[in-house]
Amino acid sequence: MPGTRKLGRTSDHRTAMLRAMVTYLFENGKIETTAPRAKEVRSMAEKYITLAKTNTLHSKRQALAFITKEDIVKKLYDEIAPKYMEVNGGYCRITKTGPRRGDAAEMAIIELI
Question: Can you give the pTM of this predicted structure?
Fold first, then answer.
C-alpha cells in the first residue's frame, strides 16, 4: 500500500508495534510518541473505533484479532465506541510537542477526544 509509513521496521515488527500502541491508546486514552508513529496509530485506532460501532460478533472477532488484550476489546465496545456513535471519524487528536532531546525526533501526543 502506498499510504503506509514503514517507520524503519520490517512489516512484522511494524504490525506488532502498531498493535501494541493501539491497545495502549485504548487502555490509557493517550500516548506520547513520535509524530509519524502517531499518525499511523491514529489511522488504525479510528479504523477499530468505527468497526466497534457496528456491534456484531464478526466485528468483535476482527477487533480481537488485532488488539492484544481481551479486556481492552470489551472496553472498546462497552465504553469507547458508544461515545462516538453520533460522530463520523475524527476520534483522535494529535498534538505536536516539539523535538525529543537526544535525537531531535518530532514528538507528539495522541489522545482520544
Answer: 0.89
